[in-house]
Design goal:
two-stranded antiparallel ribbon; 7 helices; 2 strands; about 5% strand
């Protein structure tokens, strides 16, 4: 007898993949490290590993890899989409590099991973921004991603 049930999605593994993708995107942005090198480093030494006393959760490696490769491949379109959603006078260069990494990963998902509901994606990246920022940045992520979600979905 075959089951019509989809395999249970591991939400924590998907969340860990997003966090890793944001960190890897940040690393590529600041250091210019090639994407495949960063993917290998994170899979071999960070995701699901202990690093400097911190234990990284097991990650959905496929989702992590798709995010990194997708952000790199589609970066011009992603950045244009982000800039189109910014207030007049704002550019990508004015955005903090960590925030830029969060937005790039989140916007990539909104544009390309249509099987994931937009509110889920937006909420995940708001939560990620709260992990990095205590100020107004999570509200900024919320507003911008919500506007872009309505435009691209």
């Amino acid at each position: 007898m075959t089951s019509n049930k989809k395999p249970k999605l591991n939400v924590d593994a998907r969340r860990a993949a997003r966090l890793g993708a944001v960190q890897a995107t940040y690393q590529m942005d600041l250091g210019g490290t090639p994407s495949e090198e960063v993917i290998d480093e994170f899979i071999d030494h960070r995701l699901g590993q202990e690093l400097e006393g911190d234990l990284y959760n097991e990650a959905d490696i496929e989702h992590f890899t798709n995010l990194i490769r997708g952000v790199v491949t589609d970066q011009v379109r992603i950045d244009r989409t982000i800039e189109d959603g910014l207030a007049d006078g704002w550019t990508m260069t004015r955005i903090d590099s960590t925030l830029r990494a969060i937005l790039r990963c989140g916007i990539y998902e909104l544009i390309n991973m249509v099987d994931i509901p937009a509110p889920v994606i937006v909420n995940e990246y708001i939560d990620l921004s709260k992990a990095f920022f205590e100020g107004p940045e999570p509200k900024f992520v919320n507003g911008l991603m919500d506007r872009i979600a309505k435009a691209v979905r």
